[in-house]
Structure formats: C-alpha cells, structure tokens
UniProtKB/TrEMBL annotation:
<dbReference type="GO" id="GO:0000287">
    <property type="term" value="F:magnesium ion binding"/>
</dbReference>
<keyword id="KW-0238">DNA-binding</keyword>
<dbReference type="InterPro" id="IPR043502">
    <property type="entry name" value="DNA/RNA_pol_sf"/>
</dbReference>
<dbReference type="InterPro" id="IPR001126">
    <property type="entry name" value="UmuC"/>
</dbReference>
<keyword id="KW-0460">Magnesium</keyword>
<dbReference type="GO" id="GO:0003684">
    <property type="term" value="F:damaged DNA binding"/>
</dbReference>
<comment type="function">
    <text>Poorly processive, error-prone DNA polymerase involved in untargeted mutagenesis. Copies undamaged DNA at stalled replication forks, which arise in vivo from mismatched or misaligned primer ends. These misaligned primers can be extended by PolIV. Exhibits no 3'-5' exonuclease (proofreading) activity. May be involved in translesional synthesis, in conjunction with the beta clamp from PolIII.</text>
</comment>
<dbReference type="InterPro" id="IPR017961">
    <property type="entry name" value="DNA_pol_Y-fam_little_finger"/>
</dbReference>
<keyword id="KW-0515">Mutator protein</keyword>
<comment type="similarity">
    <text>Belongs to the DNA polymerase type-Y family.</text>
</comment>
<dbReference type="Pfam" id="PF21999">
    <property type="entry name" value="IMS_HHH_1"/>
</dbReference>
<dbReference type="InterPro" id="IPR050116">
    <property type="entry name" value="DNA_polymerase-Y"/>
</dbReference>
<feature type="compositionally biased region" description="Basic and acidic residues">
    <location>
        <begin position="265"/>
        <end position="279"/>
    </location>
</feature>
<dbReference type="InterPro" id="IPR036775">
    <property type="entry name" value="DNA_pol_Y-fam_lit_finger_sf"/>
</dbReference>
<keyword id="KW-0548">Nucleotidyltransferase</keyword>
<dbReference type="GO" id="GO:0009432">
    <property type="term" value="P:SOS response"/>
</dbReference>
<dbReference type="GO" id="GO:0005829">
    <property type="term" value="C:cytosol"/>
</dbReference>
Length: 434
C-alpha cells in the first residue's frame, strides 16, 4: 500500500482537499489525511463496522466508553464480539467465555441484543444504499459497495463519497466504520482490516503485488491456522512465495484451494458486487404425517433438511453464520433456537451438527408436528468454511462432502446417502413448506 505525501489527499475529519506535501490538513490540522496515487480512480469498497455489537452498547451507555466490553453468553458461552479495549487484553471473537474472562477479568459482559443490532445495521445499510444500488451485504455490519459511475450523481469521487459516509455514520448513528478501497473485492476486504478502528486504507493496481508479497498467507480468504500450518510444513509462509509458484503445482498440492491461492496471491479477483434482496435466511422445513418425539425419529429428517439447505446455499454462492432450529409442537406452539458459528458455513455437516446439538436439548418427550433448519447472517461463499475447521476430522468431512456433492450432481440426489438417511425412503422427502 503506497502512502505518498507528494500526491493530493483528502482530510478524513473535515473533508478538505489537501495539497501535495501537506502532512496535516491545512483547514483543521488533522493528521488523518488520506493519500494514494490511484485515490481518484478506484471505486470498489468494503465497509466494516468497528466492533459493531460492542460499539452499539457503548453508544447507548456512555458509562461503558472507556471500559472493556464483551458481548456474549454466560461463562459456558462464547464471545460474539469484544471492544478494542478488551481485544488489547487478548479477547477474540468465538473465544470461550471463561478464557476471555481469564484474559480480561475486569470486562463487562453483555448478552447480545440481536434485535437492536439488526435495527442499527439496517440504518447503516440504508445509508450505503443512498451512495449506490450496488451494495452486497456480507453480514449485519459489513458490505461490499461498487461506486463506479456515481461521480456525476454525488459530484465527487468514490473516495470522497466514502470519507463523507464514514463521518456521517459517526455523527448520525454514533458508531464508527473502517473502509477498504481497491479495484477488487479481495483487496478491498484486506484493506478494510489494515487500520481498524476508524480506518480508511487504499490498495491500488500498481502496488497490489508488492503489498501482497509482504503479507502472511493467512491474509488470503480461507487460510486459517490449520491450513497455514499445512502451508508452513511445505515451506510456504508469505504470499510472496505463492507468487513464484505455478498454478498447476498449487492445484496438485491443495486442490481447488490451490487455484484460489494462485489467483488471490496475484491480486486477481473478478467477482462482481452482487446486490441481494431482503432474504435474510435460507431454510427448509417439513410437517410430519404423525407427531414425533424421539430423537431417533427426528434425526434423519433433520439431516435430510440440512442437506437441502446446504444445496441451496452452494447453488446461490453464499454461506451463513447462524444456524436456526425450528420446532412446532402438537399444540401448534413454535420453538426456535439458534447457534452462532465461529465461521460462516454452507456445509450440510456443520448445519446438521449445530442443529443436532440444539435438538437434543429440546427432545424432552414433547410431541412435534414440524421441524425445520436454516441459516441466517448470510455472507459471501468465499468467507465460508475455511480449511482450518475445528479439527482435522472436520476438514476431512468437508472434503468428503465435496466429493458427495460432485457425485450427486452427476448421478442425482439419491445416488449417495449418509448413514442418517440411508434406506429411509419417502419418509425423508415429504412436502416441504419453505
């Protein structure tokens, strides 16, 4: 990422256009001057709210402003998010709560208020849509935007429009955002993470290869701890090393992930910003011919529904972070239970596993007439199911599911069945009320 004081810039605090060589804004004295040689030509952005849940809670309770805040469940739960004060102490999203409190015992723990967060998220989304109709949400608090062709509408470059947006969100909604501006989705997402919180980073075409060469392999989507360890064992630690490897060699070693490594290490990402409608979840449910109560009877149906949801997610090129179980009792009372995963998923195995854990707690002898499973907090498929799932066994199951999908695509859905559904016949394929 090039930061060159010899090119003009934009003051992110007062939006004054600074001249070449000015280290601070001449109008307000702020050092937060945004500069880049390609600043006026780039138009693809990634916007991410900073520590969103915690920021909303601090906004609503000023007494929390200078205190470490963790949003999550009880002592046996996990961290949904943490403010930056708590992060300095080592608290991270998806960390078990007991470990988070060991790292930061003075933290204030707040139970998530998803209804409130969704409401604030919709406010931010509405402000994004005022900039461009090309908004692709990744989750409740982040999205890609394509502002190409909007200069005449706004009377300003995309960079200036985004700087105005960040200030507007801070003034009107009371939270902060970080922005990444580039020529493709991958680098816009990378850029938005560089200077959090209240960041605005730019990666252009001219400096992409140089910038990426210095980054660890974990900067690439899907490369987490486990897969990074695999690459490390092969002597690969930086993206620069990947830039000197052939596509065929990478695919021979790592399959389809090898192709992703080859392309993204070179800053090649031709995916477009694709606006989605108001769909907030993907689900499948069914009503039984007779009421059921035993886990053994409900389990194969849950598995079949999970596979159906997985197939729809894969076809749509999306994943989801939250798994939702729906049950309707014999007296027509509805129970919904949800579980947020550490990473978004589109795998039937992970959807089913989370649903099964919730079902076991609900199967207390109650008679049910309906069961459903779904995922919400929808996101881009590129962010779903990184190779370093919880353990090596999970990774192997993911590979096996990919092989099953390939066989079903070629020979039909019934060509391969799991042990949960094998031999169950029509019982697992009733009319579905999606």
């Amino acid at each position: 990422m090039v930061v060159n004081a010899a090119v003009p810039g934009i003051c992110r605090d007062c939006l004054y256009r600074t001249g070449p060589g000015e280290r601070r804004c001449r109008a307000c004295g702020s050092p937060r001057v945004l500069r880049h040689p390609e600043l006026e030509t780039l138009s693809l952005a990634h916007i991410d709210c900073d520590a969103f849940y915690a920021a909303v809670e601090k906004r609503d309770n000023p007494e929390l402003r200078d205190k470490p805040v963790i949003i999550g469940g009880g002592k046996r739960g996990v961290v949904s998010t943490a403010c930056y004060i708590a992060r300095i102490k080592g608290v991270r999203s998806a960390m078990p709560m007991f470990k988070a409190l060991q790292a930061c015992p003075e933290a204030i723990v707040i139970k998530p208020d998803m209804e409130k967060y969704a409401r604030v998220g919709r406010e931010v989304r509405a402000m994004m849509l005022a900039l461009t109709p090309l908004v692709e949400p990744l989750s409740i608090d982040e999205a890609f935007l394509d502002l190409s062709g909007t200069e005449r509408l706004h009377g300003a470059s995309p960079a200036m429009v985004l700087a105005r947006f960040a200030r507007q969100v801070e003034e009107e909604i009371g939270i902060t955002v970080s922005i990444g501006l580039s020529y493709c989705k991958f680098l816009a997402k990378v850029a938005s993470d560089l200077q959090k919180p209240r960041g605005f980073s730019v990666i252009g075409r001219a400096d992409a290869l140089t910038f990426l060469a210095e980054q660890p392999v974990t900067a690439i989507w899907g490369v987490g701890k486990t897969f990074a360890a695999t690459l490390s064992a092969d002597g690969i630690h930086t993206i620069g090393q990947l830039q000197h490897m052939e596509r065929a060699d990478l695919m021979r070693r790592y399959g389809t992930m090898g192709d992703r490594l080859y392309r993204l290490s070179r800053g090649q990402d031709d995916r477009k910003v694709e606006p989605r409608g108001e769909a907030k979840s993907v689900s499948s449910e069914t009503t039984f011919d007779r009421d059921l109560s035993r886990v053994d009877d409900l389990l194969p149906i849950l598995r079949a529904l999970s596979e159906r949801v997985s197939a729809r997610l894969k076809k749509a090129g999306i994943g989801g972070r939250t798994v939702v179980l729906k049950l309707k009792t014999a007296d027509f009372r509805i129970r919904t239970r949800s579980r947020q995963l550490a990473n978004p998923t589109r795998l039937a195995d992970r959807i089913f596993s989370a649903g099964f854990d919730m079902l076991k707690r609900e199967a207390d002898g109650t008679m049910f007439r309906l069961i459903g499973i779904g995922v919400s907090d929808l996101t881009d498929a590129a962010l779903a199911d990184p190779p370093d799932l919880v353990d090596r066994l999970s990774y192997k199951r993911a590979l096996a599911e990919g092989a099953i999908d390939a066989l079903r695509e070629k020979y039909g859905r019934q060509a391969v069945e799991t042990g949960y559904t094998f031999g169950r016949g029509k019982r697992l394929r009733p009319e579905v009320e999606d």
